[in-house]
Design goal:
Blueprint lengths: L11 E4 L1 H5 L9 H13 L4 E6 L12 H7 L7 E5 L3 H9 L4 E7 L2 H8 L3 H17 L4 E6 L3 E2 L3 E2 L2 H14 L3 E6 L6 H11 L8 E5 L6 H10 L4 E4 L19 H10 L8 H18 L2
Parallel strand pairs: 1-2, 1-10, 2-3, 3-4, 4-5, 5-8, 8-9, 9-10
Antiparallel strand pairs: 6-7
Helix pairs in contact: 2-3, 2-11, 7-8, 8-9
Length: 293
Amino acid sequence: MTSNPTLPNYARIVEVGPRDGLQNEKQAIGIDTRINLVNMLAEAGLSYIETGSFVSPKWVPQMANTDQVFAGIHRQPNAAYIALVPNMQGFEQAVTAKADEVAIFTTASETFAKKNTNCTIAESIERFKPIIERAKALNIPVRGYISCIAACPYEGLIAPIEVAKLAAQLISMGCYEVSLGDTIGSATPEQISEILECVLPYVPADKLAVHFHDTNGRAIENIHVALQYGISVIDSAIGGLGGCPYAEGATGNVATESVVDLLDKLNIRHDINWEKLNKASQYIRQALTNSAP
């Protein structure tokens, strides 16, 4: 492992709980609950918050009425409120909702692409080109996601070079950052090291983020590896919410609380208020308990 011996001084957490977390909950989540959660997260100091996605409610019913969530939040001046968009229609909805940023998503697995987005990887890239062009014209930053960087529930292990090429392609198209996702939470620290060794010659560390699910309890170890390679942007979900509805068993993003705890132990600054973060965590856990069928 040829990681950077100097850890970053500061790490930015991208809070994905209100979108990637809640989208995989079984019960419907009220609009007011989603608004309150986003507000509490911003008050806790989280400056990048995935607020929702403009996908068909037929496929992801928990993300219905995302426009009302964007309309109802109290926007903090130093926070960016992000919307996930699958296509141009979703992008235009995000623009109308005044999303500060948009995120697009593809995968390193052809089979997963077909099951998740009903198209090939190449077709998904073509679908993003007009979105990125329009976003540039409107000065809206675009973040890219790559799922299944280590393994796919259908294909098994994924070749790291495929991840590297795809990440480089997204950056060249105009994404300012690419988030590397271990969607089924199966990756080991050794695999993450191997993937980053392959990706970093194609995309520099300051344009990469990591997005780990904690299915096998290795997410924090994997984040520690990424930090040692100079990656300082970490996706996480309050309370360890969610997973991917198209990857059975991939329960739970790494908890934001666990990431903050790791950063504290490593003396890496994060600017998040621990007490307010815990209040947000307790709030959403209680709300989910109360709305459970």
